[in-house]
């Protein structure tokens, strides 16, 4: 039994659990409608806060590692009221498990340290060394609609994903729960929801309840074998601007898939297919120029591959995380069980004329 990346995995899981606790507080405020029009965007507050908590945990444990994260602190330096609201959240979000909180270093010292730590996410990434990729709130639109979103953390070593963790506060805990479209129901109840997906390269993928409370032991997850394309289900973005939904409908038709797509925000899609709730994830370019961000895919890519899937771009090439902050060498994403991935790519290439 290899123990490679064991410590990285433990810290990543706890860091995501803690950050998700912060985003849940903001989510429920928003879902209850307590954020007025004049307030700063709740996404902004949740994003900055979660990013600060995750980077603080990484710096405490792995001070030499580089970090690629979405936000920078400049807007907070220019807006003390916004800064103070975020600080209040960051200061007061702690894991219930005191030992676990201690492992993360106990949070952020003061408001200046918070600004400093948020700005530690500016690495250019690249092919060499250890780089953490963070998406503090993936699926911001879903977060605002009261639907799916994810707190995402991946460790790249020399451009390859070695550890991936996804916190999905609004997915059912139950791996066997059917995949349903979740475009946002303004749900205010965490009962039965919240799942933490994890994977380490070569060691498989797991799911466990996101908490609160001490993390339980993970259960192995695996993609479902697709024996009959007619009954396969595929998922895609809710946002038509993120993935071309008419191309996906044509691809589904070509494959003989009869069910309509399940639309869901964020990397919750990767987690859902990895545990067999869905089968295929299609993300099809809507423009020639858009470059996918590494933090939108690093964790999900590994979790699906470790669950028995294959993840590539629309041409069938593996996602290349070693070229910087974006997946500049790839267009779109196709994730499917390894046994049928080639068949899906064939249909994708025919429809997109690649
Ligand atoms: N034109 C585009 N094509 C593909 N993805 C896009 C896009 N514009 C924004 N995105 C990304 O889509 C992510 C959400 O993915 P999904 O549609 O699967 O929920 C966004 O992450 P954030 O929500 O973190 O900003 C953003 O990075
Ligand atoms: Mg994102």
Automatic annotation (TrEMBL):
User: From the UniProt record, which GO molecular function terms apply?
Assistant: 3'(2'),5'-bisphosphate nucleotidase activity; metal ion binding
**Alphabetical keyword list:** Hydrolase, Magnesium, Metal-binding
Pfam families, per the entry: Inositol_P (PF00459)
Q: Which residues bind Mg(2+)?
A: 70, 135, 137-138, 296
> Reaction catalysed by this chain?
adenosine 2',5'-bisphosphate + H2O = AMP + phosphate; adenosine 3',5'-bisphosphate + H2O = AMP + phosphate; 3'-phosphoadenylyl sulfate + H2O = adenosine 5'-phosphosulfate + phosphate
Which Gene3D superfamilies does UniProt cross-reference here? Answer: 3.40.190.80, Fructose-1,6-Bisphosphatase, subunit A, domain 1
Q: Which GO terms describe its biological process?
A: inositol phosphate metabolic process; phosphatidylinositol phosphate biosynthetic process; sulfate assimilation; tRNA decay
- Which protein is depicted? 3'(2'),5'-bisphosphate nucleotidase
């Amino acid at each position: 039994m290899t123990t490679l990346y064991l410590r990285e995995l433990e810290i990543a899981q706890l860091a995501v659990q803690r950050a998700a606790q912060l985003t849940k507080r903001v989510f429920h405020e928003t879902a209850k409608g307590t954020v007025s029009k004049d307030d700063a965007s709740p996404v902004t507050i949740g994003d900055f806060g979660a990013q600060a908590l995750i980077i603080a945990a990484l710096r405490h444990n792995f001070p030499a590692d580089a970090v690629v994260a979405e936000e920078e602190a400049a807007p907070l330096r220019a807006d003390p009221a916004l800064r103070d609201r975020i600080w209040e959240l960051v200061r007061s979000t702690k894991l219930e498990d005191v030992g676990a909180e201690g492992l993360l270093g106990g949070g952020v010292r003061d408001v200046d340290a918070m600004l400093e730590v948020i700005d530690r996410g500016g690495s250019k990434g690249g092919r060499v060394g250890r780089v953490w990729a963070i998406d503090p709130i993936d699926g911001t639109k879903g977060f605002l609609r009261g639907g799916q979103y994810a707190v995402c953390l991946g460790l790249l070593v020399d451009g390859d994903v070695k550890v991936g963790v996804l916190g999905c506060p609004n997915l059912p805990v139950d791996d066997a729960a059917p995949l349903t479209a979740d475009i946002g129901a303004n749900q205010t109840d965490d009962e039965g929801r919240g799942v933490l997906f994890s994977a380490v390269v070569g060691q498989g993928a797991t799911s466990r309840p996101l908490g609160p409370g001490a993390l339980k032991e993970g259960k192995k997850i695996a993609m479902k074998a697709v024996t009959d394309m007619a009954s396969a289900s595929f998922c895609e973005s809710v946002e038509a601007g993120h993935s071309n939904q008419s191309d996906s409908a044509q691809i589904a038709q070509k494959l003989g898939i009869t069910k309509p797509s399940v639309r869901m925000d964020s990397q919750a899609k990767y987690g859902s297919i990895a545990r067999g709730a869905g089968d295929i994830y299609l993300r099809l370019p809507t423009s020639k120029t858009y470059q996918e961000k590494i933090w939108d895919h690093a964790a999900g890519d590994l979790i699906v591959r470790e669950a028995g899937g294959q993840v590539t771009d629309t041409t069938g090439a593996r996602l290349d995380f070693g070229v910087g902050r974006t997946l500049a060498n790839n267009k779109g994403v196709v994730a499917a069980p390894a046994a049928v991935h080639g068949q899906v790519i064939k249909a994708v290439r025919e429809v997109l004329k690649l």
